[in-house]
Each structure stands twice: as C-alpha cells, then as structure tokens.
C-alpha cells in the first residue's frame, strides 16, 4: 500500500513539474528583454559608434539607453559615452535596433557596453551588459 502511495506521489510530480516549468518558461519569454550584440560599428571620421541590440517588449513603445566605456590599451585614456534615449517598438516581437553613441576617443578593439530598456516611464525593465568589440565601418 505504501509503495502505491509513493508511486502516486511520483506520478503527480511527474505531471505537475513539467507543467510548472513550462509556465515559468512562458512567463520568461513574455518579459521585456534587451541583448547587446557582440560587435559595434565605428564609423570613421565621425566619432560615432553604432551598438546593435535585440529588443523584445510589449506595450506599444519604449526606449533604450546604451553606455560604452573603453580603457587602455585600446585607447590612450579611459573614455566613456552614452546615447540619448532611442525609441523602440514594443509589439512582443524581437526587433533589431541600432543605437548611436557619440563620443570622442574611442578606438577599435575591446570595450564594455550596457543597455537599459524602459517602457512608459524612466523605470528600467530590462538590462544587459557585456564586453563588445568595436570594428571599423567605412
């Protein structure tokens, strides 16, 4: 009898656990997301860096702000710059977005970027940060 109860409990767990995990996955997929792409484009003669993002959100529209920092040996002195808030479409689809960061002193090579996504207010709803590589675009 005890063996049957144990098997029943395991059977219920075997059914309930995957359902609970799947509902957690569905919620995670529905949450706002911002992901920084590995490469940023440096446009020669303009001191402009375009940082690529993938953004997913819902609610009509939002905005994203990107900050980039770079330190020696890529540049002779530490440098950092940020973007103005850039609008993004929030229609529950993953959208590619290019955010322009204006700054003097950036060079090709390794840098560090952060991205903050806001929807409807200045409250950040998604954040990403990563090392990126700045590459030249002619």
Describe the protein's architecture and organization.
The structure is a single chain. It is built from one helix and eight strands, in the order αββββββββ. It is an alpha+beta fold and 138 residues long. The radius of gyration is 22 Å and the shape is elongated. The N and C termini lie far apart (77 Å).
Q: Low-confidence runs (pLDDT<50, min 5 residues)?
A: 3-27
Q: Percent helix among the residues?
A: 10-25%
Q: Which strand-content bin applies to the residues?
A: over 45%
Report how far apart the termini are: 77 Å
Helix/strand order, N-terminal first:
HEEEEEEEE
What is the count of DSSP helices, taking H or I runs of 4+ residues? 1
Shape: elongated
For the biggest sheet, the summary is:
8 strands, mixed
- Class computed from helices, strands and strand pairing: alpha+beta
For the secondary structure, the number of strands is 8
Radius of gyration: 22 Å
Estimate the mean pLDDT confidence: 82
């Amino acid at each position: 009898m005890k063996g049957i109860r144990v098997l029943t409990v395991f059977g219920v767990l075997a059914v309930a656990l995957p359902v609970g995990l799947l509902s957690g996955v569905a919620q995670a997929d529905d949450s706002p997301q911002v992901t920084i792409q590995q490469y940023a484009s440096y446009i020669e003669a303009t001191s402009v860096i375009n940082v690529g993002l993938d953004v997913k959100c819902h609610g009509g529209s939002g905005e994203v702000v990107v900050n980039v920092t770079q330190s020696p040996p890529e540049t002779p002195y530490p440098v950092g710059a940020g973007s103005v808030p850039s609008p993004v479409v929030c229609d529950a689809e993953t959208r590619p977005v290019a955010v322009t960061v204006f700054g003097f002193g950036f060079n090709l090579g390794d840098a560090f970027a952060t991205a903050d996504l806001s929807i409807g207010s200045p409250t950040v709803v998604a954040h990403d940060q990563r090392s990126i590589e700045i590459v030249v675009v002619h």
